What we know:
Blueprint: H1 3-13, E1 26-27, E2 51-55, E3 61-63, H2 65-71, E4 74-81, E5 86-97, H3 98-103, E6 113-118, E7 123-127, E8 137-142, E9 145-146, E10 156-158, E11 171-177, H4 184-187
Parallel strand pairs: 1-5, 2-11
Antiparallel strand pairs: 2-3, 4-5, 5-8, 6-7, 6-11, 8-9, 8-10
Bound molecules: ligand MTE and molybdenum atom.
Amino acid sequence: MGFFDSNRAEYEKKGIDPHRLPSGQYWTERFPVLHIGTVPDYGPDLRSWSLTVDGEVDKPFTIDFAELQSLASDEFTHDIHCVTKWSKFDTLWRGVHLSRLFERAQVRPNAIHLMMYGDHGYTTDLPLSEVFGKPGMVATHFEGESLEPDHGYPARVVIPHLYFWKSTKWIRRFEFLSSPVSGYWENGGYHAIGDPFKEQRYSGF
Ligand SMILES: Nc1nc2c(c(=O)[nH]1)N[C@H]1C(S)=C(S)[C@@H](COP(=O)(O)O)O[C@H]1N2
Ligand SMILES: [Mo]
């Protein structure tokens, strides 16, 4: 029996519904760390961290961490799936749902796309159809604790219904766009949407 089969047998033995694991993925209880560049250090008071929402909006705004925390009262539990083939079940996050965060910006009707900017130059993009009415959030807490620096402290995006490269760590800016622009991995040939249940790993295949 190969690795993927024995992995599947292992979690099925635990009573986990096999349909939760998309094809080509394996299940893990670990939480791997994956990113380009180094982990940012915002200092003890997070004075150098802020979050901006701008672009095709009527009311662009920037908030500091205290204000983000005052908004961060939404919770969800979801499975997450990385394009490097690991999946992790039942991850619990607290933060603010993207649709609630974006309400205040008054997104213009001509906006169709979103670019997310993390620190150290990471970008990833999405059509708005994957944002509004879908389960994304800006998370400040994982399993009841502040995020680990490696996992995006003080705040990261979590978009659980898509491959995890869409979930920008050290999130600093959301820019609404009137036409699609590709982010870091999308420029390198990764899929524009990245639905793990459709195995949308690469574009053009
Ligand atoms: N800022 C930033 N966010 C990022 C990345 C990155 O390189 N920089 N990598 C992405 C990728 S490819 C994955 S799989 C997840 C990994 O998140 P984790 O390290 O918490 O598991 O973060 C995503 N968010
Ligand atoms: Mo990834």
